[in-house]
Structures are given as C-alpha cells and as structure tokens.
Task: structure prediction
Amino acid sequence: MSERNAPHKVVVIGGGYAGTLAANRLRQRDDVEITLVNPRPEFVERIRLHQFVAGTGDATIDYGTLLGEGVHLVVDSATRIDTAARSVRLESGRSLDYDYVVYAVGSTRAVPSSVPGAAEFAFDIAEFEYAQRLRARLEELPLDAPVTVVGGGLTGIETAAELAEQGRAVTLVCGRTLAPSFSAPARRYMAAWLSRHGVTVLEAAAVSEVRPDAVVVGGGVRPSALTVWTAGFGVPELAAASGLRTDALGRLLTDETLTSVDDDRVVAAGDAAAPSGRPLRMSGYAAGPLGARAADTVLSRIAGTEPAVIDLAFTGACVSLGRRAGVRQLARKDDTAVNVFVGGRLGAMIKEVTCRYVVAKRIRREAREPGSMGWPKGGQRPGQPASAARVVTSP
Result:
C-alpha cells in the first residue's frame, strides 16, 4: 500500500467506558486502523465494583462482546507517549506508531500519604485488582467484625450499603456531608436508609490515622477490622510522564474539543481529561459522551474539518442502596441538584437500567452502528470560546 493510501493509525489508551466507546466510534471511516491498549484482557464495569466486592454481582465483560470488527486489542500498559516520534511505548517493550492518540486512561485510587497508615492498611475499590483484594479480605472476616468506609461520596455510600445489607457492622466516615452533590431531601432519604440498616454515619468527621485494627476519628480511636478508602480519585501519571501539560491532579489539559493544549494529535476522553482546566465530574455518565466527542474530534482532524466542542448536559446521578433500594437524583444541565429525587425500589430499578444502558445501548450499539450514540446536549460551556484556541496553561 502506498503512503498516500496508508490507513490513519489511532491508538486508544485505556479500555474503560470512554476508551471502548471511542474505539468503536472511530470505525465510521474504513481507512482508520484502531488499536485499543488496556492492561486487562476484560472490560471492567467500575460502576459495579461495589457489587463484586460484596459478592452480589460480577464486574467484568469479555471484550469480544463489546468491540466492533477491526478494533485490535493489545493487553499491555502504556508507559510513555513519544509525541516527537508519534509512538506509544508499552510496558512490554513494544512500541505502537500512531497518527492520533485517544488518551482515555481513566482514574484510579487516591489514598493520601498525609494520613498515617492509610496506604499501608486501608483497602480501596477504585480498580478491579484492588476490589479483588478487598473481596478476599472480606471473605476472611466474621460477619460481626467492624468495617469502616471512608468517604461520603457515591462510591462510599454504595459500598457501605452493600455491606450493611449483608448484616455487617459498618461505619461510614463522610469527611464532611453525606452525598454532597445530592439535594437535601435525597441526602435525608439516604441517611434514613443507612440508619435503618445499622450503618453509623459520621458527618463532619475525618479519619486522621488508619491502624491494622482501628481508625482514629476526631481524636478518638474506633475499632476497625477492615478500613475501605473511597475518598477521592487520582489519575495515572502517563500524561505528565510524557511531557504533556496537566492540571494539579494530573489530568491532561485540553481545549474544548478535548485536544491536548500541547499536541493536536493527542485527544483526551473521560476522567483523565481537563478541558480548559475545568474538568467535568468524574463519572460513567460523562465518560461515554466524552469518548464519543474525542472520537469525533479525531475523525474531524482526519477529514480536515473543524472539530466540535463539548456540549454535554447533565441530568442527575444514581446511587444504589444495596440490591433493593436506590436514589435517582435529578439535576439541572450544569449538574446542580434540584429538590426532586426517586427513591426506593424504583430508584434501584433506574440505577440498574442505567448500568445496563451504558454497556448495551452505548458501547455495544456503537460497535454495531458506529456514530449512532447521542447524548443530552448542553451547548457551549459557559465562559468558554467557541473555537479551540489553546490558551490554557498548567497551574
């Protein structure tokens, strides 16, 4: 094949919600060669890891059922993006040449070094391998052994609820407010459910030390045979290690088309993207549209057309409370909660339908019909230029 007719090589780094969808969507052109790099041979449903830990559900799916024809899966980890050579270096020693990169490495755990004992003794649930370790530890513990979950966000709530429903003695240390992104009525509903199921909820309290069999909270020592850390997320260091500018957390700085402010052949998606230094909420909800927008940006650049900017509108969020209850919080387009929510069994049904929708109606449909995915549109983000001017600087 002549160089003129050579395929456009796109390497997608990360096979999560954003990366897998982006890889499938790139198949709208038949002259694009797509390689998906992921450290695991299976897709991980991160929004189900709390179920996996509790033994109430699975969290992995065979990529063979998710990827469209022509997407080549490489099970490996990227260690550096060599933008000068247009090559992605892999942990195995291999290198993959590219014309474009979709940077979709996702997020990972963020156990703080400032809290003594947290890194050594706390377990977490941010990735599949950590969830496996946590599940194995839970299986060793007596049912009445005290468990502490650190973090009052949605991951902490779902983990605490799942364990409490099994009859475990759970304390949830929120740090500040329970579910701070939800409305006051929804927070009261969740607090009542947790209380009925025996969960001790400590708001405006933080863990200052983790010990093998206890935690220090507010100066007092509380028994804890197992401590689960869910407070916050981090991102892999690949962008910074590759000499690309990032925000303070390590997310790749991009313009509003998700293009790196340093290199227009690197396009980001999902949790590891910081468009205009103002990243969207880390979530499965945002991952799909950002993956689709990243793929569209790459296809626009190949076609020589102007890429579109981010236009995602939020509609709210879901949280499960065990297997029989949940909350669907409604929100404005800018992701601020309104005082309307759906709870109970209907809330649980909505959460389950949402989880299935992400895989069946987004990723799998995009594999069958590339370019078919749509999403609620929010228009140009406030305060952002309509064009893709690279004016963001690292902090």
In short: The CA atoms of residues 76 and 288 lie 23 Å apart. The first helix runs from residue 17 to 25. DSSP finds nine helices and 25 strands in the chain. The two ends are 45 Å apart (CA to CA).
